Predict the 3D structure of the following.
Amino acid sequence: MKIVRYITAAGPQFGCIHDDIVYSIEGLPSRNAQQGARIGPLNSVKLMAPCRPAKIIALAINFPGATGLSETMKEPLVFLKSGTSVCGPYDDIVSPFPGINVWGESELAVVIGEHGSIFGYTAANDVSADNIEGWDHHLARSKAADTFCPLGPWIDTEYSPANRLIEGLQNGDVIRRGNSDDRLWGDARAVEWLSRWMTLEPWDVVLTGAPVRVVPRRYLKPGDEFIVRIDGLGELRNRFRENSVR
Amino acid sequence: MKIVRYITAAGPQFGCIHDDIVYSIEGLPSRNAQQGARIGPLNSVKLMAPCRPAKIIALAINFPGATGLSETMKEPLVFLKSGTSVCGPYDDIVSPFPGINVWGESELAVVIGEHGSIFGYTAANDVSADNIEGWDHHLARSKAADTFCPLGPWIDTEYSPANRLIEGLQNGDVIRRGNSDDRLWGDARAVEWLSRWMTLEPWDVVLTGAPVRVVPRRYLKPGDEFIVRIDGLGELRNRFRENSVR
């Protein structure tokens, strides 16, 4: 089943999609969801992120060639993004740090189910900013601003993550590309390891790392569009802008 | 009002305390709580952490003399701990990383209210572990394991954080000591700044940094007790042990 959330006058609703048609869900979305009544064509609803995780656990340095990789590495680098950093699959990424370098990262994401199981898969953009003090850029200042985690468009509970192309495109140019099978730690290994030291809760999301750049590093300029495209999981398409509040 | 949560046969309950007596709460704990019926003496209930934050935002390098401080620093270092890292004021800290150095840090914590306001104050222990790969120890591996954030014993909604002694004790010896007024960024400034780039939600917690060590660094050994003592806010008392699962 492909689970979505969409906006209605009564608030966010879970639904599911089949052949580009949105249906309601009967039962609990995380447990025993059944396809319900027809809502309408996919393009007639405004999609939100398909879930609102309490925490987002992100793996870095999980592809061959990744910056920071060493031969003796025993485990991937793990950092947190906040649930409040999530935005929808077509929402704007709004940097609160004008003039600071921001970039996108295309990642296959695991959505956690009950008892720490793998519930399904979705696409994520691990938007990141330079840390103004030069501190580790995996810290909150760089990773956890509002809108810094586009997620969606849906959670596929029957998805096979084997041999899937993962791409990041900026203004139509492929700038990151990799295959899910090249990840140093696969989904099951990562989730099992994380759950040894951290309780994983339903709707928590694990980002499994960005494939390497295939062009020199590019930062986002206002107006740029970043696409995360994962074979069989659809696309995130988010435009970048800056907020002048800070 | 001093807000607590305690365990009952029916599950966690909010309450409030007055002169070491626990009372029920009428109204919403986060909005219009009123003291209700008498439950019993404080020592007759088992306290939990007074809230379960979705996210914990922690400031580092916020005291003079802190490791990593530079004269040109524009902002404190900000990292995230997970909500699942929270444990109660007298629970055991259980390291899932046997043989890895773990230490405690005593911190004054702000609890966020509605619309990003400061709802109250509580005490926190920012338990930390060495990162096995030598990566920044503010990352999840070091900061976000289950039980790595003792919180409580209560949230004081009328607390003044001015001129308060903050101490960390290990087996009765004071190993960290500082005054809340010495913090480089105060509560209001920190919360206002964070809210420019991150939505703060009710029950989110902001740790405002550990005062410096007054003795050489000490790591926790199994059986050690770490106390966080903050003038007017009571004490956290947590015993340390290791889990052999990993």
